[in-house]
Every structure is written in C-alpha cells, then in structure tokens.
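ugh ok fine here u go
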Amino acid sequence: AGFWITVAGTILLTMATLFAIGEPIFSNYVPVLTHPVFYIALVLVGLGIFLTVMNAFLTVIKAYKTSGLPVITFGMLTGGAAVIIGLLCFGIAYFLIPDEIAPGISLDPGLYFERLFWGGGHILQFANTIGMVTAWLLLAYLTLKVIPLGSDRMATLAFVFYVLFMLPAPFIFFQTDINSQTHKDSFTHLMKYGLGPSTAFFAICIVRGMMKQKKEDKLNWADPAFSSLVLSMSLFALGGAVSLFIQGSNLKVPSHYHGVIGAVTTAFMGLTYYIIPLLDRKVWSKKMAKYQPYLYASGQALFVLGMFWAGAHGVPRKTYGTAQNLDSAAKIVGMALQGIGGLIAVIGGASFVLNVLASLMGKKGK
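structure:
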C-alpha cells in the first residue's frame, strides 16, 4: 500500500508541476506550488514513505529475532529512523507555526513553508546520507567481495553517531521559537556536525579496501557498480569541499547541494545495475551501463564547479535571466561551465533511465 500511495502522490506532484497550477514558492528543501492538489500530493508522498519505512522496520525486527542484524541492514534501519524523525519534525512544525504567518494571512507566503520544511528537511539529509553510505557498503561488497570496515562494532557505532544528532531534532521545536534564527541555526548545526565524521569513516575504510585490491590488480573500472562507488565518493568529497567556502546567499550554496545530491544519485544508479538481475531481467546495454556513471558524474562535477565559480564572483542564488546580472567574463564563464556540465549530466541521467526501462521491459534472464 505504501508504494502505491507514494506513486499516486508522485503522479499528482508531476501533474501539478506540468500544468503549472498555483504560485511557485522557492522554499528550502521542498519548493511548493500553492494549490490544494499539490498539498494533497505532498501528504500522499509522505504517507506512502512512512508506511513503506514502517513495513521495513517490522521486517527487520522479525529477521533480527531469527538471524541477527548485519551491518548493512543496521544502516538501512538507521536511514529509516531518519525518515521517521524527519516526518515527525514536519508534523510538529505544522502544529507550532503561528497563524499570523499562514498562507492567506502573511504578506510573505514563503515564510510559512520555510518554517514548515526547515527542521524536517535538515533531518532528511541524514536519511539521504545514510542511504548513500549503505549503498556504498553494498557496492563495496559486490565489487570488492568484502566489506572493508575493520569491525562490525565500529561500523555500528558510526551509524549510531548519526542517530545521536538526529534524536534532538524534535525537541528543538519546544526549546526555541520556530520563527527565531536560533531555531534555524540549531538544525543547521545538527547537520553540520552530525554528517561528516561517520561518512568520512566509511569512505576511508572503503578506500583502504580499494588500495588492497589495487595491489592485487582486482579493481574493475568497467563495472558500473565499482565506478559508481568511486565517483559517488568523489562527488561527495567535492560537495563537502565546496561547503567550506560558502559565504552569503550566492550560487556557492546550491553548488554544495548538487555535489552531495549527485553523490547520492550516483550511488543508487550503480546499485541498480545489480538489482536488475534480481528482478529476473538482464541489463539491456552493458556498454551504455559501462560509460553512463562517468558521463553523469563528470557532468555533475562540471555543473558544481561552474556554479561555484559563478557564485564566487557574485552571482546570486534563486535568480534567473537578467536578475543574475552576468556583467563580467568570470560570471559568464562560470554559468557556461554550469550549463555544459548540466547538459552532460542530463545525457548521463537520460541514458540511465533508458537503459533501466529497456531492461525492465526486456526479456527475462540474467
């Protein structure tokens, strides 16, 4: 039921966007169209995800009683917990937001949605990161034939470290004024200090495992799962490096977002090539699969670097056309690089979608 509810909500979101109903609000984490259809679609997506995660929780608990809990499964469980806490934050914010900033009353409708999605949006970045790291571990196991973590205990503690920074989130709503800068900063600090250490630990362990395999000449760069693993970690490192130079509200901010989000996407793209055979299908074009991760990740990297360069020279975020004030060669070069990278990434993403759809609709067999 959870899956189909999510599908229904996604279709409604897509339809609302295609038909451009309502006014667009560029709120952080969840941009909004001010129309009841869009609101209903968001609720359906949230409900569907909640039901899916709860079903996964019950499945894991049942499996734990019989055979224990492997590290990768614990990672999935931790990611599910992040989703639940994020949705809880959305719910608390909905009930605590003052009436005076509600749509139709406030002169700034964007303020309402900014407050509504700010806390939960930050916590959902834990879900994204934990999901990506879990995908890294799966890809490492599938391509390196080992999970290079040193010990299961250390890996479990690294996942628990994420949880320690997620758990305080709901209580922030009762300790700070939802309209205050302190409220916003509290969630920013949770994400700022809670995501890096554990992610770095997992990345270092995997790189060490790769170095051992390299000595034995066992690294298969033609395997899309392996290349996706390396490229995902590289994009995440790029996004993290960019974040160190963020100042003000310019394109350096979304350049960071696109680096780390691109890393999440790349990891799951690589994992998909191993999931297809589990669905009793074969990959439609192995040649396309071989080059697709490089195409997508290189385009995404150029997109990030171009956006960062433009932002470093003063191009503001969330502006379009003449409002970007491209009055210098540096700004134009940055935006051009972003456009070229974006085009390459879109081609890489489209080739992935084409290959997966053709695989799923193709003949059975491995």
